[in-house]
Amino acid sequence: MRKRIVQGLMATFFVITIPFVSSTQVSAAASSDDIATFAEKFYGTPYKFGGTTTAGFDCSGYIRHVFTKFDISLPRTSADQFKVGTEVSKEDLQPGDLVFFANTYKKGISHTGIYLGDDEFISAKSRGVLKANLKTDPYWAPKYAGAKRVANVTVAFEPVQVKPK
Asked: Cα separation of 39 and 132, whole Å?
């Protein structure tokens, strides 16, 4: 009797949830424009080394904070963030892409920001979350190291199949 009740509950659960997971792919992708727009909301937030909250961000903490809003989980450091996503040429940058810089406070990839469009990016710098120009800023332009696209993340689910006994 108990087995029948459990089977009935499980069958009911699957029947109710199948419409929500019946597709083989559920997109968790965020609009790149949405990411860029959300990123700009933190303009002027103070800088804090190791900071991951609106009380103060460092560059990679800021990136993680923004992308978490869109259910995109990224590594903690800019060097590790550089290892994720699809490489994008400077000419093909879109708002929401991550831009990376090398040899800022240490050798190698050491800073990251979010591309906004029109050669502009936003990032948590020593003076806080500010914008700069990729091509003309005298500090950032020569340190540009590349870009990655992480906005089009897709999470795949296997469809649920109920087998009658």
From this structure: 14
Strands 98-102 and 144-149: antiparallel
Task: Supply the range of the domain harboring residue 127.
Answer: 28-153
> Taking a C-beta distance cutoff of 8 angstroms, is the pair 58, 51 a contact?
yes
Q: What is the CATH number of the domain that holds 83?
A: 3.90.1720.10
Q: How far apart are the C-alpha atoms of 14 and 20, rounded to whole Å?
A: 10
* 111/63 Cα distance (integer angstroms): 10
Instruction: Put the strands of the sheet holding 98-102 in their side by side order.
Output: 86-88, 144-149, 98-102, 109-117, 120-125, 128-133
pLDDT tens by residue, 62-109:
999 999 999 999 999 999 999 999 999 999 999 999 999 999 999 999
> Would 160 be classed as within a structural domain?
no
Structure tokens belonging to residue 89: 């040429």
139-162: pLDDT as tens digits: 999 999 999 999 765 333 333 444
Contacts of 129 (CB under 8 A, 6+ apart): 42, 43, 44, 45, 47, 57, 62, 122, 123
Residue 134 is assigned to a structural domain of this protein: yes
Total count of domains within the chain: 1
Residue 158 falls inside a structural domain: no
